[in-house]
Amino acid sequence: MITETMQKVADMWKADYAEEWLAELIAARGKETMNKQKTIIQDVPRILVVDDDEALLFAFKRIFRDVDVAIDSADTIEETKALISHQTYSLVITDLRFNDVNPEGGLDIIRHIKHHCPDTRTVLWTAYGNPEMEERIEEVGPDFHLKKPVPSERIRDIMRDIGVLV
After folding, report:
1. Consecutive H or E run containing 91
2. Would the pTM count as exceeding 0.85?
């Protein structure tokens, strides 16, 4: 369709620049659509899910695709901090450990959020736990602390409790 339109414009105007002009027009319309979509997305609550397990991030987005929220994901502390510095999140769900490099990376993220984004609610989830770690988690104070595996309905309940879901 675009090629046919470009040909019609070129034939009609007999101009060498018709293809370039049409490409600019399409790009402008694309930007306009993207800006409208961005505005719509900004009007819904945002959730950030932080985990180094790609399959879990994929599953989370898939399970909650029917929910009227924007879901972002990150798999490193640095990426998480960058996203948080540019976007407001209603909820951040983070794993405790990242690739055994930082066994308490999730606590670093929660501390960062509490300092820079005090209105953002937090969930820390983990498959690991011992009394010392439980004590450190309690000291940092995520809003919710869950043991993996976490049923999706529990996440929905939390989302409802904090007002992300109606």
Report:
1. strand 91-95
2. no
